[in-house]
Amino acid sequence: MSSKTEFAPFVYPLAGENVIYAGTDEAGRGPLVGNVVAAAVILDPENPIEGLADSKKLTEKKRDALYDVIMEKALAVGVGIATPAEIDEYNILWASMLAMERAVESLSVVPGMILVDGNKIPKHLMMPAQAVVKGDARVKEISAASIIAKVTRDRELIELDRLYPQYGFASHKGYPTAAHLRAIKEFGLIDGLYRKSYRPVKEILDAHNG
Asked: What separation in angstroms does the CA of 75 have from each of 7, 49, 110?
């Protein structure tokens, strides 16, 4: 017997009412460094995109290819971030919600409903919203948002890698790998980039201040 939970196919809540749906998702909750990035996407029903799936299930090459297709074919794409300072102030969950709100606000087309990956809804959306558990695998608008968010954040880390090559950001993408932790111990924390509330970073700061 499979241990995986099977979810029923997603049913759009206002189907048949000509509603414009936007999907939103975030990337970068786990890393020690950098912004959490959210995207919101409104797809064009007249211009479908093949191959949309949870960004975590796709190869980097496939994500990059789909990113270009989504940017070309979607009716609207918005991106929002929350900074390391905001993550430390609000915690990563609510900073992720803030990034989603900013992504939705940046859409050039106003949606009638937001479909949010996960089980929580951002507090300050200006239109109805529904949380969808495993939405990045079940709802094409959320799948598209997950790809835009993931590729955008990975590209931010590649740019950081150019600025700080000794940290290896392009390979570990800011996650707390052994190589990353060794680099922090050798070269120190980069001011303004690290999430000080995350335990590995906090432990380094406490040891340094102690």
From this structure: 28, 12, 10
